[in-house]
Design a protein that fits this description.
One of its GO terms (molecular function) is DNA binding. With 80 residues, the protein is mostly helical. The protein contains four helices and no strands.
Length: 80
């Protein structure tokens, strides 16, 4: 699970702590602790909500990056 969390964190957009915290109804510190597998958060009631929000945001960010790369490639191939 820790390896998966590292991959998710690497692909989250800037400001994700506050966004996930707002969505889950907890503090950014709780989000940080859960995504960094702190021992004190193993039984947190927010854990599932935070993980689900992080996965969704990660996927959205990856899709956006793909669209930007595709658009960039199209623009490179356009002749003026």
């Amino acid at each position: 699970m820790e390896h998966e969390l590292e991959i998710i964190k690497e692909n989250l957009p800037f400001g994700y702590l506050k966004t996930i915290a707002r969505e889950a109804g907890c503090s950014p510190g709780t989000v940080h602790n859960i995504l960094n597998s702190k021992a004190s958060t193993r039984r947190s009631r927010f854990k599932n909500q935070i993980i689900e929000a992080a996965i969704r945001m990660c996927n959205e960010n990856l899709e956006t990056k793909k669209k930007v790369e595709k658009t960039t490639e199209v623009l490179r191939n356009v002749s003026i």
